[in-house]
């Protein structure tokens, strides 16, 4: 996949180390909005740290353990999605997302995540696709619901963001459920 069209002017495509400068500028621009929910936004502060994150994902891709994509709207990087984890031998993976608030509210993330779940389940034979988010992250919860996922429970104090530990809701959709929920 070189590029997947989400709408007339939006596309989903691989985010790679050569995109580091654009990626870092984008994260600097959206940090205040995504910062409470996305740990990576505090790690990527300049081109070098952006390249390090994208290189880490290229290395994960080479090991078949993760992937990262960007969402470009009218040619400008406006957000992204990732397989934060991808465990083909166990048949499980987790999707993460973020978006510039200027691009929110148009279904771009829901569309992109549907493509990713389709690929994970139908092409890669995944049994379970997870979505983890803070119980306070209403917009992320709304995406999980729109994707037809089921809330399984809450992992308490599961991960730190900017030094503060967060609870994580765990949502999932199973391969057997996906055809009727997508
Ligand atoms: C989570 C986040 C990516 C969700 O973005 P979003 O724009 O709300 O989600 P979508 O792109 O799927 O858009 C959904 C909205 O578009 C509308 N929409 C329009 N056309 C649509 C379509 N074809 N399909 C789905 N939704 C559509 C929906 O009704 C919804 O509108 P609403 O905001 O009025 O309820 C965004 O809020 C964000 O970046 N938050 C900060 C980072 C973050 O929390 N990431 C997740 C961590 S777990």
Automatic annotation (TrEMBL):
Keywords: Transferase. Residues 10-176 form the N-acetyltransferase domain. One of its GO terms (cellular component) is cytoplasm. Pfam families: Acetyltransf_3. GO terms for molecular function: protein N-terminal-serine acetyltransferase activity; protein-N-terminal-alanine acetyltransferase activity. Gene3D superfamilies: 3.40.630.30. This is Protein N-acetyltransferase, RimJ/RimL family.
